[in-house]
């Protein structure tokens, strides 16, 4: 077995050396996802292909395990090392378990970045977050404000009172409230990410604040329940339900008019940005704290001390594009 | 015995009236007839399941799988709707599927003599797991359901939505079942004194089995209502709802030790919880206090019931056994 492995490693090394000669022609970038067959990642692969077409000398290898396990990803990474790819961009199933295999890849000169779901700091050169808490906090209030030119009362329907993500986003939202004069947040209620409780809380908001103009729900369960409650109360069109949700879950509510627009990361942009960053790093760009890396049409990403960066504002979905994305995720 | 029940229900009704008065002080809009009707409609699933749970608890069992049963049948209903199955067939299907899942609980309790809390704790997890298997963890959303499927619980008839009428019909059905049929009386006999019940010719296991099947069928029906009303089906719908159902029974004076309870009590218990759930968001109490207040209300109600429950009749029966 060990002889076989050695032989394979030798063969792999040889192929790396051979590939080195051909390197100038095409960069081979592997997009490793949590599992194959997930709409979100298929869309990311589409974005990576778009980047490849734009860059010209890139071949995208879209791969991943068949189920969302770290072991499966480690096997995939080892196979990619053997194939001698130029770069690996991974959305990890476990931040620590895949780190040693990725370190091995970096030792062999392969560019390694993580995106979407990160890897421990020593297992990658940089991590690309789809967005950041300040960007999300700003986006959720902007979505409400954009449809309220004259201002008005809005309320927040969150998940549980202890959920870290939502609390951070709401805190960031409150920080930028000064930029949206005329908009007042009259209350924050908690639907505990249960459809029935969120529905009831949304009903309560409509009763308590008769002048309510918008409900902001930065949670995918809450936004759907609130949209249904608004529709059932016959207030679709009067009260705009917005926040963070998935296009497949929100398509019906956008059509009914209960939600004018909502946001979530765009997987196509994410795959595009990950592929471009991997390409640039592999072509000599460096990932260092405070530095920036170009992402093509997505602009530049700025890295923090943890070598993490945020891609962009969450992507806005409305009646014009929700159907197209509803089939993706 | 009946006088005790009547007074207990009167007491609970009084507490509910007092609760409504207190809420009206802080938020007068809550006690308008239209809003009370909507609160009743919102509580309809809890009423149906509290009645179902009541007959199970009467036989000294407990069914923790009702919410998981509801979620699974709801998912199946949504999937059948997606395949274009007519609504009438879906309704029959969910009731039968729910009954079948209740029968699994009942058979395990009856034939294998496993404690009901263990059986239903197990099937609760299994049913949730099956939802994941059949749905692949995906949601079924509003735009994937047909309009007719979503409309049935909302059709207004004499001012009330159909969901409320279904709850009223089922309440009447349970009143007849519990008060006027041999099976209904045997639920009390089995729970009150199983040994004596055997001597009167009642098959204890089969009675418990019947209670589980009826509870399952009700959970199945509620599964459709739930999914149609909230227009979404996924693995975790009605998570933790089984505890609300048990709480409604206990508040309604159904003895967790079996043999005592009434249809009116279970309905009032469910209404009490339903009013609390609907009122807390509008009376302007910090959400951080809401859970504590709900919990305190349950404990106070149960403590009251426990004191009232010390009826001399029960003690004599226990010694006779």
TrEMBL record, chain A:
MF GO annotations: carbohydrate binding
Ranges annotated as spanning the membrane: none
InterPro entries in the cross-refs: Bact_Solute-Bind_Prot2, Peripla_BP_I, RhaS, SBP_2_dom
Subcellular location(s) per record: Periplasm
One Pfam family recorded for the sequence: Peripla_BP_4
Keyword Signal applies: yes
Signal peptide per UniProt: 1-24
Identification of the protein by name: Rhamnose ABC transporter substrate-binding protein
TrEMBL record, chain B:
GO CC list: plasma membrane
Residue stretches spanning the membrane: 46-72, 84-108, 114-134, 155-178, 209-231, 243-276, 288-306
GO molecular function, a single term: transmembrane transporter activity
CDD domains to which the protein is assigned, alphabetical: TM_PBP1_transp_AraH_like
Name of protein: ABC transporter permease
Keyword Iron: no
Keyword Ligase attributed: no
Family annotation (InterPro entries): ABC_transp_permease
Localization per Swiss-Prot or TrEMBL: Cell membrane
UniProt superkingdom: Bacteria
UniProt membrane topology term: Multi-pass membrane protein
Location (main, coarse): membrane
Keywords: Cell membrane, Membrane, Transmembrane, Transmembrane helix
Organism in which the protein naturally occurs: Fertoeibacter niger
């Amino acid at each position: 077995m060990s002889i076989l492995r050695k032989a394979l490693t030798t063969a792999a090394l040889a192929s790396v050396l051979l590939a080195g000669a051909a390197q100038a022609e095409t960069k081979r970038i592997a997009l490793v996802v949590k599992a194959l067959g997930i709409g979100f990642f298929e869309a990311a692969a589409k974005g990576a292909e778009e980047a490849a077409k734009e860059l010209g000398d890139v071949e995208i290898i879209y791969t991943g395990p068949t189920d969302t396990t770290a072991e499966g990803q480690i096997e995939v990474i080892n196979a990619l090392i053997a194939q001698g790819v130029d770069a690996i961009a991974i959305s990890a199933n476990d931040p620590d378990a895949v780190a040693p295999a990725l370190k091995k890849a970096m030792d062999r000169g392969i560019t390694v970045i993580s995106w979407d779901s990160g890897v421990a700091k020593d297992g990658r050169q940089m991590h690309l977050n789809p967005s950041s808490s300040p960007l999300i906090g700003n986006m959720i209030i902007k979505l409400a404000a954009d449809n309220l030119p004259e201002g008005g009362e809005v309320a927040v329907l969150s998940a549980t009172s202890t959920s870290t993500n939502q609390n951070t986003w709401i805190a960031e939202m409150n920080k930028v409230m000064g930029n949206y004069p005329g908009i007042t947040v009259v209350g924050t209620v908690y639907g505990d990410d249960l459809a029935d409780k969120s529905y009831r809380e949304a009903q309560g908001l409509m009763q308590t604040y008769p002048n309510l103009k918008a409900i902001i729900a930065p949670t995918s369960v809450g936004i759907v329940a609130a949209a249904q409650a608004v529709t059932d109360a016959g207030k679709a069109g009067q009260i705009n339900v917005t926040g963070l949700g998935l296009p497949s879950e929100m398509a019906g509510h956008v059509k009914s008019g209960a939600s004018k627009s909502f946001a979530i990361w765009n997987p196509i942009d994410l795959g595009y940005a990950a592929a471009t960053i991997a390409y640039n790093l592999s072509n000599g760009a460096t990932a260092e704290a405070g530095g920036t890396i170009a992402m093509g049409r997505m602009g530049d990403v700025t890295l923090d001390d943890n070598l993490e960066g945020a891609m962009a504002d969450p992507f806005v979905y409305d009646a014009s594009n929700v159907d197209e994305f509803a089939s993706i995720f | 015995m009946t006088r005790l029940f009547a007074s207990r229900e009167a007491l609970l009704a009084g507490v509910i009236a007092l609760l409504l008065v207190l809420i009206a002080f802080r938020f007068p809009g809550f006690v308008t007839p239209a809003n009370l009707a909507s609160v009743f409609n919102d509580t309809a699933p809890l009423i149906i399941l509290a009645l179902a749970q009541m007959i199970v608890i009467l036989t000294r069992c407990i069914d923790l799988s009702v919410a998981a049963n509801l979620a699974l049948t709801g998912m199946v209903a949504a999937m059948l709707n997606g395949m274009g199955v007519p609504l009438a067939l879906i309704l029959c299907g969910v009731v039968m599927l729910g009954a079948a899942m209740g029968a699994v609980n009942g058979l395990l309790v009856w034939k294998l003599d496993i404690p009901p809390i263990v059986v239903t704790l197990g099937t609760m997890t299994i049913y949730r797991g099956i939802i994941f298997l059949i749905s692949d963890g995906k949601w079924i959303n509003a735009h994937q359901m047909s309009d007719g499927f979503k409309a049935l619980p909302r059709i207004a008839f004499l001012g009330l939505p159909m969901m409320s009428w279904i709850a009223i019909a089922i309440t009447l059905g349970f009143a007849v079942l519990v008060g006027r049929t041999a099976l209904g009386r045997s639920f009390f006999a089995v729970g009150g004194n199983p040994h004596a019940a055997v001597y009167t010719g009642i098959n204890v296991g089969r009675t418990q089995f019947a209670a589980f099947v009826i509870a399952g069928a009700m959970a199945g029906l509620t599964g459709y209502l739930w999914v149609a009303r909230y227009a979404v089906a996924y693995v975790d719908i009605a998570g933790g709802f089984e505890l609300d159902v048990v709480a409604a029974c206990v508040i309604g004076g159904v003895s967790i030790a079996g043999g005592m309870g009434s249809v009116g009590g279970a309905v009032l218990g469910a209404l009490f919880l339903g009013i609390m759930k609907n009122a807390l968001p509008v009376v302007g109490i910090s959400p951080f206090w809401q859970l504590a207040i709900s919990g305190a209300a349950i404990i106070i109600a149960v403590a009251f019931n426990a004191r009232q429950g010390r009826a001399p009749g029960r003690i004599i029966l226990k010694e006779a056994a």
